[in-house]
Specification:
By secondary structure, the protein is α/β, with parallel strands linked by helices. The chain has 4 helices and 4 strands; from the N terminus they run E-H-E-H-E-H-H-E.
Length: 108
């Protein structure tokens, strides 16, 4: 079963931003246990997580080393001035295609 995680903001949930960033880091650290995790798709402010200044590069690097593709939206990266440290630049066609091929999509 192919599983995809979709991250559309730089925190998990709504409300307190520092708390949302902290629990997102914890989620990503723990998500390495998802056996069928094939890719994480990023758009909008979610692409900021892949920036060289991101506090969660360790978690994302560990996932990438495990073989999880990190695919940020190129339009979002450009618009937000993200300096990618991890991941492979993609586009909305790729994001839609990956979602279509997935058996399960988890949106955070």
């Amino acid at each position: 079963m192919k599983t995809i995680i979709l991250i559309n903001q730089d925190q998990m949930g709504h409300g307190d931003r520092p708390l949302g960033q902290k629990i997102l880091a914890t989620f990503l650290r723990k998500s390495i246990a998802i056996e069928d995790l094939d890719a994480i798709l990023f758009y909008n402010t979610g692409t900021r997580l892949l920036d060289r200044s991101s506090a969660i590069l360790g978690e994302l690097s560990a996932l990438e080393e495990r073989g999880v593709e990190l695919l940020p939206c190129g339009t979002c990266v450009d618009a937000l001035g993200v300096d990618l440290a991890v991941g492979r630049l993609s586009d909305m066609d790729t994001i839609v295609r990956e979602m279509d091929r997935a058996d399960k999509v988890i949106t955070l």
